[in-house]
Amino acid sequence: MTVLTAAPSALDTGDTAWLLTSAALVLLMAPGLALFYGGMVRAKSVLNMMMMTFGSLAVVLVLWTLVGYSLAFGNDVGGGLLGNPLQHLGLGDLMAPSSNGSSHVPVLLYAVFQGLFAVITGALVSGAIADRARFGAWMVFVAVWTVVVYAPVAHWVFDAGSPGHPGGWLVHQVGLIDFAGGTVVEVASGASALALALVLGRRIGFGKDPMRPHNLTLVMVGAGLLWFGWFGFNAGSALAADQDAVIVFTTTLVAGAAGTLGWLAVERFRDGHATSLGAASGMVAGLVAITPSCASLSPLGAIVLGAAAGVVCAFAVGLKHRLGYDDSLDVVGVHMVGGIVGTLGIGLLATAGAPTGVNGLLYGGGPGQLGRQAVGVVTVMVYAFVVSGILGLAVDKVMGFRVHRDDEVGGIDLAVHAETAYDLHALVTGRTVPHGTLRSLTHSGENR
């Protein structure tokens, strides 16, 4: 991803319009994710799940404006490890028209675009702790996490540097290729999710009680919005309305389709049924994998990678039952594993005919790029896991991260938010069921 600096230049209205549109598409991914996650949990915790996404949207954007963008894209203050946290404090210095002289888009717009990446990444982590987390504790966690995990990793990977601006060490010194966030977004969120799931422990009844999605219609609608928004996520990272954006748009499109087919194929041959949840999950897996590699592969390579991600992730989601950790909505199995597949896939399937201009191992490029991709994956995974685990333990120690047992069994929505997602005042045998009875039914712990 190109980094922007504040050198004055003529702004291109077409490129600016495309990045404005892309930023709006990435913003749309937040309610899309809320619907996707909300449909996957039980009815008694829908609002809590959706609130964690909307809460992330609010707190992350404020922190990104204050200090996050400076940490991620400010002038380096530590050998490629971190940007100057005070350089763009509040983003007020970016209000004058400015660009980097190549993409011709305002730096302020680029800062906003990147802030929305941070929102989605933080919100993804919440899926691992669905049905059992305190909302206040989550808000504190995601706020600090944005500053100590996301912003530094974004600096390492996304800040490619410019004259007088060395940039992040993974992209500038190691040579990692990650066009739109396979490590920064997917691997970081998945590793953080695993750490947090271990800190909070398993849900009551995990492995014994059915914990099926309560509303697959919401899941499918949310998945569709995510796919739509993903074009802003990936193609918007080209920072221009040009041929590179067209190639990225195409690889993103076909990888999502191939991921769907890969996951459904596994379900059909393994379980005998191709499910709607599998279709939505496979689509996301394909999109996750193509995120880092969308500017490095041909359309055919994108199909191969997307299908591989669908297959691999379909098997990976079962690891939580074998290993005993409770990743409620399979953030580890889809996002971390899918991000690894996509990031390493560059080292295998990249072609010099794509915008990044690198050949992978299968195109005669040798093992060098694959090694650089592996360094990026391992570094981000270990850092995000360790720091997120420490942060999760600290929040739990100070204020308690998990809801009370009775609230978890009865329903987080009523206990924490004093609301329910659905109006259950129904007519039974010609009479309205008393409210207390319905509340008791809602608290029964059954999946509805």
Describe this structure in words.
Residues 17-422 form the Ammonium transporter AmtB-like domain. It is found in: Cell membrane; Membrane. It holds the Pfam family Ammonium_transp. The protein is built from 16 helices and two strands. It is an all-alpha fold. The protein has one domain (13-399): Ammonium transporter fold, CATH 1.10.3430. The protein has a two-stranded antiparallel ribbon with strand order 1-2. A hairpin with a 2-residue loop joins strand 1 and strand 2 (431-432). The protein is globular and about 60 Å long. It starts with 12 loop residues before the first helix and ends in a 6-residue tail after the last helix.
Topology:
Layout lengths: L12 H28 L5 H28 L33 H19 L9 H24 L10 H6 L7 H19 L15 H20 L7 H29 L4 H18 L5 H18 L2 H5 L7 H19 L18 H32 L5 H6 L1 H6 L9 E2 L2 E2 L2 H8 L6
Antiparallel strand pairs: 1-2
